[in-house]
Amino acid sequence: MKQHIISALVISSLMTLPAMAQERQDNQTEAAVGFGGGMVLGAVIGGPVGAIVGAFSGSLVGKSVGDDKHIQAQQQTLEAQTIQITALTQKQQSLEQLQAQYTEAQRQLKTLQAARVSKLEELTVGMNVQFRTGTAEIEPHFAAQLKDIAYAMSLAPELTLDLSGYADRRGSAEFNQQLSEQRVQAVRDFLIQQGVQGDRLTASAYGASAPLSQNESLEGDFFDRRVTLRLQNPDAALAANNQQ
After folding, report:
1. What is the DSSP track for 48-104?
2. Of the four listed, 50, 94, 189, 210, which is most buried by Cβ atoms within 10 Å?
């Protein structure tokens, strides 16, 4: 009698299994299939009691299958994230290398700029182009120096030159003023011929108004017949203006 009752329960469970499985959520499908499959297998092997035991075993098997799929999905997601992280890490390292190279290039550029300015200062500090009496002709010795200055200025386009022309005290003030203008113009034209842009050169003429010596003499007159070159650094001029 008990066996008939158990058999009836098993048959009833098998008949209601599809409806139960339909009502479950998607993430429980594997467990339901395992439950039903295990029940049938248990009924075939062990009768009604075997069917009940097999049903619970089958549900565990079905859940295990579902967990495996979930784990595989998580592993795939983790692998994809690992690839992305690796790519980002490599990109970050490349950016850091580029930044380091850029910083080094900037340092080298500043060093070169400082060297150029220093060289140009050496060429122009206290440099005077001297002239013979009554002329504005540039002598070969000074022409060679002016070529060096023009070349140095081509390497430092931010720099400018101030040119000041003078004459000795022999002759009239009007003649000396004109002669000083001719001399400073001759130096300016020579530098432009060497490639220096005219807007980087400022020229002024002072005649015999600024002798280097209070006492007039042949030697002193030689040094008075000159064009003086002075380097103008925009950074230095800006700093001077800020201090005022």
Report:
1. HHHHHHHHHHHHHHHHHHHHHHHHHHHHHHHHHHHHHHHHHHHHHHHHHHHHHHHHH
2. 50
**Separation between Cα atoms, residue 203 and residue 209, nearest integer Å:** 16
What's 239's DSSP letter? H
Is residue 36 within 8 A of residue 51, CB to CB? The reply is: no
- DSSP notation for 107-141: HHHHHHHHHHHHHHHHHHTT-EEE--TT--PPPHH
> Is the pTM higher than 0.85?
no
User: Residue 209 carries which DSSP code?
Assistant: S
Instruction: Write out the H or E segment, with its range, that includes residue 47.
Output: helix 29-124
Residue 171 region by backbone torsions, left for phi larger than 0, else alpha for psi between -120 and 50, else beta: left
Report how far residue 229's alpha carbon sits from residue 129's, in angstroms, rounded to the nearest whole number.
8
Q: What is the pLDDT of residues 11-54, one digit of tens each?
A: 455 455 444 444 444 444 444 444 444 444 444 445 555 555 55
Q: How far is CA 193 from CA 72, 124, 196, 226, in A?
A: 79, 18, 7, 20
